[in-house]
Amino acid sequence: MQFSLGPILYYWPKAEVEAFYQAAADSQADVIYLGETVCAKRRELKTKDWIGLARELAESGKQVVLSTMALIEAPSELTMLKRYCDNDDIRIEANDVSAVQFLSERRQPFVVGAAINCYNPQTLKQFVDLGMTRWVMPVELSRDWLVNMLNGCDALGIRDQFEVEVTGYGYLPLAYSARCFTARSENRAKDDCELCCLNYPNGRLTESQEGQAVFVLNGIQTQSGQCTNLINDLPSMQGLVDVVRLSPLSLDTLHWVDKFRVNQAGNNPQPLNHDCNGYWHHLAGMTQVLG
């Protein structure tokens, strides 16, 4: 089993992004995803900066993947996407089907991200035929669903043609919208957001009237209100999951990579505090199931 760092989903200042990846280069993560996936207005790092950073990380021995935007809304964003896909030496995670089209036309292998709806073996076969080599399971699916999917892939004869990656740590992107909820929460229009996402390095928490964490607003993303944490579920992934993804929240996420790695066999379980793991157990996502 390998462990990956997903792309930073929040808007961090450039210096913090660079400091995170300098530390990530020395971490125990096997795979590092990077790139802007949420909002094209987040330009602390430009496309050439992401590609340059990816090449530096690759030189440190990490497997590096550039992640593309999940919601393409303008021709300029399509141009940026094409620049990502035109590089010949860095693998791409497609988070939108337009990226799949670009990459398949170039006969370039790619990762299908969790933002792409993919809920049956026939769809996976189509992506495999187009060049998919790794599938990141949608965040709301369970272990039982994954077992059924992979059994279906066995029947189609494609199970050995791609890897499976599961999001094991972080706030889960549950929905995407053309509207920006962070700007709206500050009574700003999306076109006049003044890059207010910079004020919320882990998104903006929303609570119910009873004070329960319900959602985290992150630009166009509506995320889970609680952090998912599958560290104690790793033994149940054996034989099914090739890569477990940790979504960066801060430099502390790198310590969680260490904790995940030493608990692969379940010998070093961790307290979950307020974290959740319901989706993996086919329950409401905010549920916490104790091992």
UniProtKB/TrEMBL annotation:
InterPro entries annotated for this entry?
Peptidase_U32, RNA/ubiquinone_mod_enzymes, UbiV
Cofactor (UniProt):
[4Fe-4S] cluster
Q: Which GO terms describe its molecular function?
A: 4 iron, 4 sulfur cluster binding; metal ion binding
User: Per UniProt, which keywords does this protein have?
Assistant: 4Fe-4S, Iron, Iron-sulfur, Metal-binding, Ubiquinone biosynthesis
Domain of life of the organism in this record? Bacteria
Quote the record's binding site residues for [4Fe-4S] cluster: 39, 180, 193, 197
Respond yes or no to whether keyword Glycosyltransferase is given for this record: no
Pathway(s) served: Cofactor biosynthesis; ubiquinone biosynthesis
Task: Please name the GO terms of the biological process aspect recorded for this protein, alphabetically.
Answer: ubiquinone biosynthetic process
How is the quaternary structure described?
Forms a heterodimer with UbiU.
Q: What is this protein's function?
A: Required for O(2)-independent ubiquinone (coenzyme Q) biosynthesis. Together with UbiU, is essential for the C6-hydroxylation reaction in the oxygen-independent ubiquinone biosynthesis pathway.
- Protein family according to the UniProt entry: Belongs to the peptidase U32 family. UbiV subfamily.
Q: What name goes with this protein?
A: Ubiquinone biosynthesis protein UbiV
